[in-house]
Amino acid sequence: MTTQNRPHRLQGMIAEVSIKGFRSLERIEKLQLPKLAVLIGANGVGKSSFIRFFEMLGWMLRARNLQEFVVRKGGGDDQFFMGSRITPQIQAELRIATERGFNDYRFEMAHLSAGDIVILTHEAYRYSDTSKPGQASWSNLPGVGKESALPDQTNKTAKTIYTLLRQCSTYQFHDTSANASLHQRWDISDSARLRSDGGNLAAVLLDLRENDAPRYRQLVRQIQRVFPTLEDFVLEPVAGKVLLRWKSKHSDKVFGAHLTSDGSLRLFCLLTLLSLPDERLPDMLFLDEPELGLHPHAITLVSEMLKRVAKTRQVFIATQSPYMVDCFDLENIIVAEARDGATTLRNLPKEQYQQWLDDDYLLSDIWLKTPVGVSS
Question: Lower Cβ count inside 10 Å, N or C end of the chain?
Answer without folding.
Answer: N
